[in-house]
Amino acid sequence: MITPPQQRMLSLRAIQAAPSPTLAITAKANALKAQGKDVISFGAGEPDFDTPQNVKDAAVTALAKGDTKYTPSSGTVALKDAIIAKLKRDNGLTYGRTEIIVSCGAKHSIYNLMQAMLDPGDEVIVPSPYWVSYPEQVKLADGVPVIVPATEASGFLTSAAEIEAHITSKTKLVVINSPSNPTGAVYTPQVLRDISDLCVGRGIYLMSDEIYEKVLYTGAEFVSPASFSEAAKKLTITINGFSKAHSMTGWRLGYAAADLDIVAAMSKIQDQSTSNPTSIAQAGGVEALNGPQDSVETMRRAFQERRDVIVPALNDIPGVHCLNPDGAFYVFPNVSALYGKSWTPSGDAPRTIGGSDDFAAYLLEKYEVAVIPGSGFGADGNIRLSYATSMENIKRGVARIAEAVQALA
Ligand SMILES: Cc1ncc(COP(=O)(O)O)c(C=O)c1O
Asked: Residue 61: its pLDDT value, please?
């Protein structure tokens, strides 16, 4: 006879963590593709361009010359110096090597930060719609995400006043992501300054996720909150990475710049978990920052052309309303006018569309179009489409969505 386990097998932490809806839909779309279906995917949040050749060459050279051993856990000196130079050049920020940590993706940097900063019950203010991982990473560190809803009417942007209304004695950190995933919204320098001033005035830390810094369209200006003042710099943790600007999603390389005590604590956590990011990926990262930047601009321009096609095409569909984003490569149309309508799968009972999960399932199952439901981003009235895909896919995919909407009863 087998003795039953005395304890529950899984931790509450693991049980309560929500799976990433983006990864789940992408996996489902890929499985359908593998069955030979002509799936058009607006799912994955990654550029459809190859990594620039000079970056690949740098990694190949590193591999050939034997850079295949452990590196310092928080990153190589060469990459830290390239990051320091980038922060100076692009953001007007001055950091030393002990104030930089390189991790296995920006996601990993944020994870390290939450683990390094949060005690049980500490509150983290997260404006919604938010990137799916922020609340989950807060919870994985036993913190409490406090959601500040930003409405479509305000362009999916919150304000210092709205954030202030959610501050309590337990508030430790405010999370800002501009340009935003999933909305593409970009904060003005003034609003960022107001939020930064609020954090400085109240002694609250500010995490600025700047991963879409380079994907900005007409007129939008990028500014790092850490650059506002010495006091702001002390309280700001700047997150950035290589995935989006340099099309290096699979390389898993990102970084944080912050006060040296915060970086030291993050490094301790990284030391005891993953150790260093892959050595040859770091060599590629050095070239991505120090080498020519023309591919960054080529990709940005292509994204802008696609945005200018997808937004009007979506707005032409009755019941769909889509804001024109200023950055990133996502649109976040409101489709809530379609909720309550129904469709009938072949040989099955009619199904009513009750929310974004149902609508995304309908599009995938019946029209072979993958979109991400807004529910995972804290906005069930919306769906997210990544337009980091070819113009042909955009046109065919939106035509299918139009057909799907028209077929609803
Ligand atoms: C807002 C935001 N932050 C961070 C990340 C993580 O990027 P990385 O690939 O560097 O982990 C993503 C990726 O989708 C993102 O959208």
From this structure: 98
| Residue where one domain finishes, among candidates 290, 323, 357 | 290
Tens-digit pLDDT profile for residues 252-295 = 999 999 999 999 999 999 999 999 999 999 999 999 999 999 99
Ligand 1 centroid to Cα of residue 208, in Å, is 12
105 close to ligand 1 (CB < 6 Angstrom): yes
In our burial notation (b when 16+ CB lie closer than 10 A, e otherwise), range 383-407 reads bbbbbbbeeebbeebbebbbebbee
Domain with residue 164: its CATH number is: 3.40.640.10
- The pLDDT value recorded for residue 109 is 98
Beta bridge partners of 235: none
Residue range(s) defining the domain that contains residue 158: 53-290
Task: Return d(Cα 166, Cα 238) in angstroms, integer.
Answer: 22
Residue 341, judged by CB atoms within 10 A of its CB (0-12, 13-18, 19+), counts as middle
Ligand 1 proximity of 106 Cβ (cutoff 6 Å)? yes
Domain end position, chosen among 238, 255, 290: 290
Rounded mean pLDDT of the chain?
96
* pTM exceeding 0.90: yes
Is 187 in contact with 157 (CB distance < 8 Å)?
yes
